[in-house]
Design a protein that fits this description.
Bound molecules: pyridoxal-5'-phosphate
CATH superfamily of the largest domain: Alanine racemase
Largest sheet: 9 strands, mixed
Order of helices and strands: EHEHHEHEHEHEHEHEHEEEEEEEEEEHHE
Strand order of the largest sheet: 11-14-17-16-15-18-10-1-19
CATH architecture of the largest domain: Alpha-Beta Barrel
Number of strands: 19
Structural class: alpha/beta
């Protein structure tokens, strides 16, 4: 089979391996696989199916439309969606059996108002209250918790909502800060229980917390980056965590040129050849999520050897000077994948672009064809 010009090859067996490995590291907590943002660029539906096959208990997404897309694809596993716009209509989510993360009293009222039939024959809203235990992003502030818990209890008694979970998110600011969030989370869970709520799922940890803060695991861990085989830590590789990178990004070389010394390369001539040399053209650019900030730095693997991007990364393409080595049109340039196979890691691109591996994979755009190996 011929390969697409631009390809993100997604290894679903690596997804299954990573889930099994993370599950055994965090047992007995249940596992939620986070497939927001198109499964961090890997393809939400395909990853969600592989995750369900691997025995994942829950899927996590950001909003109702991401959740409904999973249902439309026939995925029936429990799904939680936790960040909503002010105009979100929660009725379709409730009808589709999607659990809703709620971050304010107003949002709790909107969710409850979307349940119009409280006869017990229609579904009630299954809610996870999201608390701000220190991250400072979305989540109910500590000062508002008492009011929200009291109202949630009333709505539960009316048969409109069921408070199935209570959760929060760690800032990963350091061990002391994480443990302070654990302490605040426990105090607020106690307060919720005292208010009459009986959440069956307490959850706080994403990949980093699940691996490094055992006390944050509770009933469920929400795993994103680790499932994609990448490390959330800047001091530890994915291999050291027993994880296999899932995405390999490559493109075919579409032009090969021999040029003289002193040739300028790409916009602004920030790179000039210092001898007669061979330039190859790779049809991936910042429109495809290749960071322009990694110009002259990003690593590229061609025919067994790693080079650097030469000059500016443009919207659709960049150039690599391969010196006296040879390449022909149709050879593949691999930007990143599993470093165990000799290619650069997504982390190398993150370093080259002053960012994190999450951003490197998540921003890979729609012109790149995702292919799946099982
Ligand atoms: C994105 C997200 C996660 C997953 O985080 P990773 O660091 O990728 O494991 C977990 N929980 C929440 C609330 C998130 O937004």
């Amino acid at each position: 089979m011929t390969r697409p010009t631009r390809e993100a090859r997604i290894d679903l067996s690596a997804i299954r391996h990573n889930i099994a490995s993370l599950r055994s590291a965090t047992a007995p907590a249940r596992v939620m696989v986070v497939v927001k943002a198109g499964a961090y660029g890997h393809g939400a539906i395909e990853v969600a199916r592989a995750a369900v096959d691997a025995g994942t208990d829950w899927l996590g997404v950001v909003d109702v439309s991401e959740a409904l897309a999973l249902r439309d694809a026939g995925i029936t596993a429990p799904v939680l969606a936790w960040l909503h716009g002010t105009e979100t209509d929660f009725a379709p989510a409730i009808a589709a059996g999607i659990d809703i993360g709620v971050s304010s009293l107003g949002q709790l009222e909107s969710v409850a108002a979307a349940v119009t039939d409280t006869s017990g024959n229609a579904p009630f809203a299954s809610v996870h209250l999201k608390l701000d235990t220190g991250l400072g992003r979305n989540g109910i502030e500590e000062s508002q918790c008492a009011a929200v818990f009291a109202r949630a209890y009333e709505l539960e008694r009316e048969g409109r909502v069921r408070i199935r979970g209570i959760f929060s998110h760690l800032a990963n600011a350091g061990e002391d800060e994480d443990l302070e969030q654990v302490r605040r989370f426990e105090a607020l869970v106690d307060q919720a229980t005292a208010a009459g709520l009986t959440p069956e799922l307490r959850h706080l940890a994403a990949t980093a917390g699940a691996l490094r803060v055992p006390s944050s695991r509770y009933d469920l861990v929400r795993l994103g980056i680790g499932v994609y085989g990448l490390s959330p830590f800047d001091d530890t590789t994915s291999a050291a965590l027993g994880l296999r990178p899932v995405m390999e990004l490559s493109a075919e070389i579409v032009s090969v040129k021999r040029v003289p010394a002193g040739s300028g390369v790409s916009y602004g001539f920030t790179y000039r050849t210092d001898a007669e040399t061979t330039l190859v053209l790779v049809p991936l650019g910042y429109a495809d999520g290749i960071p322009r900030h990694a110009s002259s730095r990003g690593p590229v693997f061609i025919n067994g050897k790693t080079y650097r991007v030469s000059g500016r990364i443009a919207m659709d393409q960049f150039v690599v000077d391969i010196g006296q080595d040879t390449a022909v049109v149709g050879d593949r340039a691999v930007l990143f994948g599993d470093p165990a196979t000799g290619v650069p890691a997504a982390d190398d691109w993150a370093t080259a672009a002053d960012t994190i591996n999450y951003e490197i994979v998540t921003r890979i755009g729609p012109r790149v064809t995702r292919t799946y190996t099982s």
